[in-house]
């Protein structure tokens, strides 16, 4: 879902020059040999995903929805995903902060929580009962599904799909 330019390509050079000259970016360590990727995360896409996850949890009497992200490092993409996820829970499902937040509770008792992706990858293997419905972005979801598939025999035998049951 990202937008990328290969290292040494004209596109990468142009993006790097724009970032340096127009945006004041100075943290590209090796600009001449760097590939560049942009990861768009939108409020609309986040809301659609989290709304579906919460509705699934409600419809199937699940206990929690966990927003898995790396917002401690990627504050404006994955951090925004987490914030927008909680916003959907509050504004569309009447969730209230739990013990002052950040976790929330729906009126029916479902807990909306978040966890940093690397902690989640450990905890889902060591304490799987703590998790129920998971909402995350594409790359994190790929890592998670592959790690969990390994628990049951490997990625070659674990089916997977990305399906939008609402709009097809």
TrEMBL record:
The keyword Iron-sulfur is assigned to this record: no
Swiss-Prot/TrEMBL cofactor(s): Mg(2+); Mn(2+)
Gene Ontology MF: a single term: NAD binding
Cofactor note: Binds 1 Mg(2+) or Mn(2+) ion per subunit.
Pfam families from the UniProt entry: Iso_dh (PF00180)
Superkingdom per UniProt: Bacteria
GO biological process annotation, one example: glyoxylate cycle
InterPro entries, per the entry: IsoCit/isopropylmalate_DH_CS, Isocitrate_DH_NADP_dimer_prok, IsoPropMal-DH-like_dom
Residue ranges of every copy of the Isopropylmalate dehydrogenase-like domain listed in the record: 1-168
Residues flagged as site, Critical for catalysis: 70
E.C. number(s) listed in UniProt: 1.1.1.42
EC class: oxidoreductase
Binding of Mg(2+), residues: 142
Reaction(s) catalysed (UniProt annotation): D-threo-isocitrate + NADP(+) = 2-oxoglutarate + CO2 + NADPH
Residues passing through the membrane, by range: none
Keywords: Glyoxylate bypass, Magnesium, Manganese, Metal-binding, NADP, Oxidoreductase, Tricarboxylic acid cycle
Family label: Belongs to the isocitrate and isopropylmalate dehydrogenases family.
Subunit structure: Homodimer.
Official protein name in the record: Isocitrate dehydrogenase [NADP]
